Every structure is written in C-alpha cells, then in structure tokens.
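S.,

Sequence below, as promised.
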Amino acid sequence: MSKEDIGITVTKKDDFSEWYTQVVLKAKLADYAPVKGLIVLRPDGYSIWESLRSTFDKKFAKNGIRNGFLPILIPESLLGKEQKHFAGFNPEVFWVTHSGTNEIGDKLALRPTSETLAYTMYAKWIQSWRDLPLKINFWNTALRAEIKATKPFLRTSEFLWQEGHTVHTSQEEAEEEVIKILEIYKNSVEEELAIPVTVGKKSEKEKFVGAVYTTTMESIMPDGKALQMGTSHFLGQNFSKPFEVKFADKDNVEHFAWQTSWGVSWRLIGAMIMVHGDDKGLVLPPKVAPIQVVIVPIYKNDEGKEKVLPKVEEIKNKLELKEIRVHVDNREGLSPGYKFNDWELKGVPLRIEIGPKDIEKESVVIAKRYNCEKTNLNFTDIERIVIILEEIQKEMLKNAQEQSKKNSINISDYSEFKSKIEGGGFLNAPWCGKSKCEEKIKEETGADIRVIPFGSENLNLKCIYCQEQSQSIPIFARGY
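The prediction came back faster than expected:
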C-alpha cells in the first residue's frame, strides 16, 4: 500500500471541507453509517469522547451533580405542554407511529432534547425544599432530522451529548448554576482539547427556545467559521409552571421552582480536528489522545530485532508506570517510513524511534506530532516524556490562541463589515441591541451574533447598522 492510499490528498488551506472529512475517515475516528445523516463512532473516536466524559463527570460530581438515564421516546401529548419550546424542534423531529403493523395512538418522538420528559419526572420527585437543589446529568443521544448538509461530528441526525437539568429554590441559585457550568465547560475545553473559547450570552433572537437567556461558549475555526461549543441556559420558571415543578418552602408555602439546562456534544471532537489538524492528518492534544506515545522499533534482521525489542519493552514499562498511554508498533512487513506516516495521520502526540544505532548511543529519537520537531533523548531521561507531553499540551493551546486572535477583527464601519465577513473570522462590532438590526445584518451578510461576551457592554459607540447608540460589542460571524 502506497502513502497516497492512506494519506490526506488535499490541503487544509485549499479545500477545508474535504480535508476535514478525509481526516475523520482516514484517521479512523468515525465512518458513515448505512442511514443518511448518521455516523458510526470507531474506537479512537469513542476513546476521545470517553476522555471528555470522564473529565466532565469528575467536575460535575464536585458540583453535586449525579448521572441518570432517560428513555429515548417521548409522547406527543407530553411535548405539547410547552408548545413554544417544542415548536423550535418540530421540523427536525423523528416520529414513531407504528408498533409492528399496528398504529399507536399517541405518536412518539425520538428525543430531540429531554426537557419535557425530565421535567415530567421532576414534578413527581420534588415535593419540598428538602428535595432541592436537584441536579442530574444525562449522557445520551439526541436525534434531529438534519436538513442541512451533514458533516461528521458537526451536523448529524443523531449525536452523542450530555444534557444537564437542575432545579432550585431561588432565581439567584439557579443563575449561579448557569455560570458554574459555563466555567466548567470553558476550563475543560481549553485544558483538555487546547481550544480557546469566548464566553458570554446569546442574543434574544439566538437564545434557546424556552430559556429566559442562554449563555454560550464559541470558537473560531481555521476556515473562519464560528462553532458553538456548548450552552448553559437559565430557564427561569418557563418550564416549572407548565410541568408543575413545585416545592413547599419551610413555611409550607408552595412555589414554582427555578431551573437550568446545559449541554455539550461530540462536536467538540470536530472542533479539535479542525483547530489542530494539518496536511498530514489528525493532531491530538496529549490529554485526550487514545495513544499518547507510539514506539516504532527499527531493525533489518533478527540480530537487530533481538537487540532492540528488549529495550523497547523496558521503555514501554517505564512509561506505563507513569500512567502514559503507550503503544509499540511491531507490525511486520511494513517500513518505518510507512509507520511514521500512519501514526502522523492518526495524530499520536509523540513518536519514539529506536534502532541498533540508537542503542549504541544510549538514546532514542523523539518526534513531536504538533510541530514535527525531532530531537534525541537519552535513556536516562525517558521519564521526562511526562513533562514533554505537558509542554505539548500547553503549546497547542498557545498556538490555537494565537490563531484565534488573528481571526478576530474590530469593526466599526458597515461597508468594511460586509467586506471582511467574506473572509470569515470573528467580527467585533457595536450593536444597538435591537433585533431588527441583528436580522438585517444576518439577511445582508449571513453573519449571526454568535456571542455577546461578558463585559462587552458599551454605550459610547454607534451601532454598526443603524448608527444609533450602541449597547454592547458582540461577536458576529458566519457559523456551522
């Protein structure tokens, strides 16, 4: 098999969309399912998701959040209890209408999101203030008939995600929860995936249907498009009233509860691919890499093999004692060059090369995936690989931050806005706060208000569209 058979055949710069798809498929993260709009997650892709799940679970648990499970089928009659909320999803809902050959009376929706089902149960479980706060997270799938062009991890008709739903006795406590979750999301994405995010609120037009307001974290991708990385919603009492989620206070007076919901999906994996990948393929941050270090033994004959393999095993054992995920590529019949290309395609953060000459020098060659840098490392310094992996993680975030900064522009003139948006990026532009201007900008340029960053309030400028007094400086961008 030639390098061309396994390698990426387009460049990231020239054909970003095709490059992305090839990386997903050829790095063996996922593959297309027989049903349009669905993908199959392969072991390496699922391993990354498991790593993120483990990180979130630990942080959720520290915040008093426990995991639960919800069924996938929701009766239509239940969805009708919060019609405004459900109307936003209705065009995308898959319906179950038959059981075998028999029609069922109440159509069943395949879960587009779980508010209606969760809050029906919460109403049963909550009686008094002693039952609150109630904080449950659900790791599950959601199904939405994707009408736009599908793309693995970014737009599929079924996707993995977590959705948390909390209930509180006061508005203040619920709003504090919204921000706590957003901070967990931001810190986790930056620390684990090495992707910088901007946090703030969605506009009234872009908020989650049924929410009082939505907080969000947004990132800019290398092709200049924005990607919503996660959201945390303050629901107020918009769901507790129709679903009768009530509690009796210490004086036995009944009140409607205050609620939040929040979630991230496997589009985080898609963001990681886009932000860090290069023309050779995937580039994985060490913290989420299924394999952090791959060792490639190099020898030409049995004599060399007998000399090299014991040292390889010794190095492997030392690294595993340091809880490093390490793999030895001892496949027969493949050249070292082929193996190097294969592991570069799969994005393994660090490669160790070791042959008879290296053993004589009492050192190995290490190759960093993110910058393709090669150096020698003495046998006595092998345990430094722990530090090297930490350095790679930090450098990847630093590089991504620099790239994000280059893709962010301050704009105050609408003509310039229309010109710059064609090249993509985050456009920071003053806005009067009126939906009419927001809608006109979207209609004329295709750019949404992605996020109104915290602290971006500004009354000293003129709205980029109507020239009235500004209220804030949101980030506009075209998005996925």
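The chain has a mean pLDDT of 95.

Coffee later?
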